[in-house]
Design a protein that fits this description.
252 residues; alpha/beta; globular; eight-stranded mixed β-sheet
């Protein structure tokens, strides 16, 4: 069965010829697990874009893949993106990684300038840290958790610093953060959002799903789940979702 790396290697059409879709979102959501924050300036910086092909430097690999799950598969993904006419010129900006054990907060995000007058904000899911898993457990009974609040602030900041339409997305907890940020951001920013992608992201407590804030963006949420989903079926759901045939786990 093919996976997202095969998709990157085989999909040669630029975004102008084949519009951005859920698989492209999943690719960039997975790529956000790589430690781009050491090479891409944060929201407070000048935000000079770093193209994906510029990241293909052997001297950067130790930092890029430090404590990243499935480092060999993620390295193959980087090679595929750097070679792809669809992805290689995408610029990365506004990378942030905030790990705070005292707050039980693990938040990371990066923004991709797609080159089709749209901007994609990718939120990293749970990483390999204990703090990340603690925050996941907190989501079962707390709202908002620190990363959800950080996601709203991040969207507002990126929206002020970019032009064009917005897409938000993430894998696992990152999908939850994308949906939460979309529903809680200001009305002016929300109007710029075309789509929100949640890839195997957990849901929300019932009171949030019944809120007018969620209703405002519900029709723009595209949720995908692997056949053997666990994280993505946690908590309550009102998003329509698509189940993807799958026989392996993680990036594969």
């Amino acid at each position: 069965m093919k996976n997202i790396v095969d998709y990157v290697e085989e999909t040669l059409e630029p975004l102008a010829q084949r519009p951005f879709g859920p698989v492209d979102s999943l690719v960039l959501s997975q790529f956000s697990y790589i430690h781009l924050e050491e090479f891409v300036q944060g929201p407070a910086g000048v935000s000079t874009p770093v193209s994906l092909k510029e990241l293909l430097r052997a001297e950067c690999f130790d930092s890029l893949f430090y404590r990243v799950r499935a480092p060999q598969e993620n390295r193959r993904l980087l090679f595929a993106l750097a070679a792809s006419p669809r992805f290689r010129d995408i610029g990365a900006v506004c990378a942030v990684n905030d790990l705070n054990p005292d707050l039980q907060k693990q938040f990371s995000a990066v923004t991709f300038l797609l080159g089709d007058d749209t901007v994609y904000l990718a939120f990293r899911g749970t990483d390999a840290t204990l703090v990340g898993w603690k925050e996941d457990f907190n989501m079962a009974f707390l709202s908002p958790v620190p990363s959800q609040e950080a996601a709203v602030s991040y969207v507002e900041t990126v929206a002020r610093r970019t032009v064009g339409r917005l897409r938000l997305g993430g894998h696992s907890k990152g999908g939850n953060l994308a949906v939460y940020a979309a529903m809680m951001c200001s009305g002016a920013v929300q109007e710029r959002i075309d789509a929100v992608y949640s890839h195997d992201g957990p849901g929300f407590q019932e009171n949030i799903l019944q809120s007018s804030a969620f209703a405002a963006i519900q029709g723009r949420v595209q949720k995908t789940l692997p056949k053997s989903s666990l994280i993505g079926m946690l908590l309550e759901h009102q998003e329509n979702y698509t189940v993807v045939e799958s026989s392996r786990i993680g990036i594969m």
